[in-house]
Design a protein that fits this description.
It is built from 10 helices and 21 strands. It is α/β, with parallel strands linked by helices and 470 residues long. β10 and β11 form a beta hairpin.
C-alpha cells in the first residue's frame, strides 16, 4: 500500500489557518472550500454587495480539488446525444454553450487576481477503437453544427474497416488520415485506435489556483469576506427567511446557504416542512473514488491531455485511461514534465465514508504502469519511478449533470455541486449562475436546474421544529 500523495498539494504555500471561534451572522455562507466554493465566493463578492463566509471542513482545496487530474475541459462525461435524449436538444446545446463560456470566466479570474501560476491551454485528444465510438463522436459534432457551436476536429483512419459505411450527413465533420497520424496524435505505437477527437483543453493546479484566488479575495474584500477552515458543518436548519448552520460548537446564521460539496460529508438538512431536502441531498449525489499516479520525464514535450477509450462500447460509464503532461517544478528551480495518469475507479454509495487518508492500493499503480508501458512510454523493460500516487472523491449526480441553483422546496438553500468527473469549468460556470440567483435575477431554465424528484413528506416534524427553531 502507498501513501495518498498529490502533486498539487505539494505546491501549496503554508499559511495561517483561521478557525471559527464564535457564533456569527452573515448574508451568504458557502459550504465547501474546493474549486466550486472558491469560484462561488469570488463571483458573489464581485457581483453583489453581500457579506460572504466560506466554511471548509478540512483545509482549503484539499478535497477533490487537490486530488484531481488537473484538466480543464468544456465537456460533459455524458455526450450531447445522451443528454439530448433526456433534456432535449435546445437545453443540451444551451448547457454546452454555458460550459464553454467558462473558459473566458476562468481567464478573467486569472487576470483579475494577477495570478502567475502555471496555466497551460493545450490540445486535447481522445482516441477510440471502434466504429460505434467514432459514429457517436460524429453525431456530437453534427449536433454542434446544428446548434450553432463550432465543430471540433475528428480524424478517422483511412484503414478503419467502417470508413465506407459512415453516413453521408457526416461528410465535412471529419477528416480521413493515415493510420500513422492517429498514432502520432495519441503519442502511441498501438494500432487498435481508429479515430481521434481533438478539442481544446487546459492543465492547471486547481488547488493552487484556489489558494491564490482566496488570498486575492481576503485582500480585496477584508470587510465582506471570511474563510474558516477546520469548520465542519453538521446540520443546516432552514426556515422561510434564514438558515442556521451547526458548525462544531458554534452556529452561523445566514440569508443564503450554498452547498459546494461532494455530498459525502456528515451533513443533515432540516427544513421547516420536514426532512425531504435532506433525503434529496443524499439521494442526488453518489460518489466515485478516482486513482491516479504520476512520474517525471525530461522537459521538452509540450503540454497535452489525452484520453484512451479502449472499451469499444458507447456507454458513458465505460472506464478509460487519461493522461496529462505539463511542466512541473519538483526540485526548487528545476523543471520536469509531470506525466499524470488516471483510470482505475471505485464506486461509493452516499452512506459510505470516504477516507482521504486511506492508502493507495498497489494494484492500481500496477494497472496504470501496465497501461503506460503498453500505450505511452512503451519500453516494457523500463522501470518508471512514480513520485506521486493519489486518489480523490468525485461527486456524481444521478443524471450526470452538475446541480446549480436553488432547492425547489426552499430557495434559501442553493447548490453548486456534482463534478461528474469533469469539474473545473462547470464549477466556475455554476458560480456565475449562483450569483444571478442571489441577486434576485430571473434565471432561464437549464439542464443544471435541481430536479423536483422527491415529493415533500405529508407529515411535519413539530418536535424538531421546536428544538431547532430559528
Amino acid at each position: 500500500m502507498l501513501k495518498n500523495t498529490s502533486p498539487w498539494l505539494r505546491q501549496l504555500p503554508e499559511r495561517p489557518r483561521n478557525r471559527l471561534s464564535e457564533d456569527l451572522e452573515t448574508q451568504v455562507v458557502i459550504v465547501g472550500g474546493g474549486i466550486a466554493g472558491v469560484a462561488t465566493a469570488y463571483h458573489l463578492l464581485q457581483g453583489t454587495q453581500k457579506n460572504v463566509v466560506l466554511l471548509e471542513r478540512h483545509r482549503l482545496a484539499h478535497g477533490a480539488t487537490g486530488h484531481n487530474a488537473g484538466q480543464v475541459v468544456a465537456h460533459f462525461e455524458r455526450g450531447l446525444k445522451n443528454l439530448a435524449e433526456k433534456f432535449g436538444s435546445e437545453l443540451t446545446i444551451a448547457g454546452q454553450k454555458a460550459i464553454e463560456s467558462a473558459w473566458d470566466t476562468l481567464d478573467a479570474m486569472y487576470y483579475d487576481a494577477k495570478l502567475d501560476i502555471p496555466y497551460y491551454k493545450c490540445e486535447g485528444f481522445s482516441g477510440f477503437t471502434s466504429e460505434a465510438q467514432t459514429l457517436l463522436r460524429l453525431e456530437h459534432n453534427h449536433m454542434r453544427l446544428e446548434g450553432g457551436l463550432e465543430i471540433e476536429s475528428i480524424y478517422v483512419s483511412e484503414d478503419a474497416p467502417f470508413v465506407r459505411k459512415i453516413p453521408r450527413h457526416y461528410v465535412g465533420l471529419f477528416s480521413l488520415v493515415p493510420a500513422a497520424k492517429i498514432q502520432e496524435l495519441l503519442e502511441t505505437d498501438r494500432t487498435d485506435f481508429v479515430s481521434v477527437h481533438q478539442y481544446p483543453k487546459g492543465v492547471i493546479n486547481s488547488a493552487l489556483f484556489c489558494e491564490r484566488i482566496i488570498s486575492f479575495l481576503l485582500e480585496r474584500y477584508p470587510d465582506r469576506f471570511t474563510l474558516f477552515e477546520h469548520a465542519p458543518v453538521h446540520k443546516i436548519i432552514l426556515s422561510e427567511t434564514r438558515a442556521m448552520l451547526d458548525v462544531e460548537t458554534h452556529t452561523v446564521r445566514a440569508e443564503h446557504v450554498v452547498l459546494c460539496t461532494n455530498g459525502f460529508e456528515d451533513l443533515h438538512i432540516i427544513d421547516k416542512n420536514g426532512l425531504a431536502i435532506d433525503a434529496r441531498y443524499h439521494y442526488l449525489v453518489s460518489g466515485v473514488t478516482g486513482y491516479m499516479s504520476g512520474y517525471l520525464e525530461k522537459l521538452g514535450k509540450s503540454p497535452v491531455a489525452i484520453s484512451y477509450h479502449t472499451d469499444p462500447g458507447t456507454d458513458p460509464k465505460n472506464a478509460y485511461y487519461y493522461l496529462t503532461r505539463r511542466p512541473y517544478e519538483f526540485e526548487k528551480g528545476v523543471h520536469h514534465n509531470l506525466i499524470s495518469i488516471g483510470g482505475p475507479e471505485f464506486f461509493l454509495e452516499d452512506t459510505t465514508s470516504y477516507d482521504r487518508e486511506a492508502l493507495y492500493p498497489e494494484e492500481h499503480m500496477r494497472d496504470i504502469d501496465t497501461f503506460v508501458k503498453r500505450t505511452y512510454d512503451t519500453d516494457p523493460n523500463k522501470t518508471i519511478e512514480y513520485k506521486f500516487t493519489w486518489h480523490g472523491l468525485m461527486g456524481y449526480t444521478r443524471n450526470g449533470v452538475r446541480l446549480v441553483g436553488p432547492e425547489p422546496q426552499n430557495p434559501i438553500l442553493l447548490y453548486n455541486l456534482g463534478c461528474n468527473g469533469i469539474g473545473i469549468l462547470p464549477s466556475i460556470y455554476g458560480a456565475t449562475k449562483i450569483t444571478r440567483h442571489v441577486r434576485g435575477e430571473h434565471v432561464e431554465r437549464s439542464l443544471f436546474d435541481v430536479p423536483e424528484t422527491l415529493s415533500r413528506p405529508r407529515g411535519l416534524l413539530p418536535a424538531l421544529q421546536r428544538i431547532f427553531r430559528l
